[in-house]
Design brief:
Layout lengths: L9 E4 L6 E4 L9 H14 L1 E4 L6 H9 L26 E4 L2 E2 L2 E2 L8 E4 L11 E8 L7 E5 H6 L3 H7 L3 E7 L14 E7 L1 E3 L6 E3 L6 E4 L4 H15 L5 E4 L6 E5 L3 E5 L9 E7 L7
Parallel strand pairs: 2-3
Antiparallel strand pairs: 1-2, 3-16, 4-18, 5-6, 7-17, 8-16, 8-18, 9-15, 9-17, 10-11, 10-14, 12-13
Amino acid sequence: MNVMNPSKLEVTPLSPHIGAELRGLDLSKPLSEADVAAINKAWLDHIVIVFRGQTLTQEDHLRVTSYFGPIGKLGRPPKFFPPGFKSLLPGIMMISNIRENGEPIGALPDGEMMFHHDMIHHEIPHDGTMLYSLEIPTYGGDTLFASGYAAYDTLDPALKAKLEGKRARHFYNYGSTQRGDGKGTEAHAESVHPIFRTHDKTGRKSTYVNRLMTVGIEGMSDAESAPLLEALFDHTEKPEFVYRHKWKVGDLLLWDNRSSTHARDDFPADQRRLMLRTTVAGSVIPA
């Protein structure tokens, strides 16, 4: 890694609770230790960081991901990889609606996707997700990010007291974008995690449930847990907690899965969308 004077990094918040654009760095070149420290601080401060106008190879993408921690492994079993994955380096996932011979070359090809945390359905979820845009439709396909910190801090005290210390159950079929949509593969994963998660780096608490993957509360019947979870989902997704990202080619985004959920708007099925995704590996969440 080059050790140089820190660049003139500009950090511009994008909404009151979540998101910042970082300017002044060309990520196709190795960063100094000072710049790596600065972008890590911006990530922890703002949950989602946005780099515009980047031109990256797959090797660059992996290198930039490694500035934030160990690179996470893909969750879905290799036998369920779409055909486009053959062109990728290990640790990179393709998200695309492009089809060859009628089959999508990437994962999560079409349509709207409910709010979720990446990898919450695993015993050790990934800390972060990095997404790089190569082709985008002329409209639609926005990604919405909601702050789990803001949701926790403003949650009704009675509901917070009722759920403090409890754990939720999560289930996901790989490829599903709406709960129960039947789009997923036969491969799935399930887990149990605290409903309120304490961030290992910031010490702040956030809501840690989501509409797509959270299916129940440990120790409660479905009839008892469903309205509580629905209230949590509705609160977490309030517009005032959300940053909406409108993609441009060359955008590179990193978001913190420990303290945010994200969703995707619908987009035209006949327009190409191609993204490459990496993740930052996590560690066991204390009960």
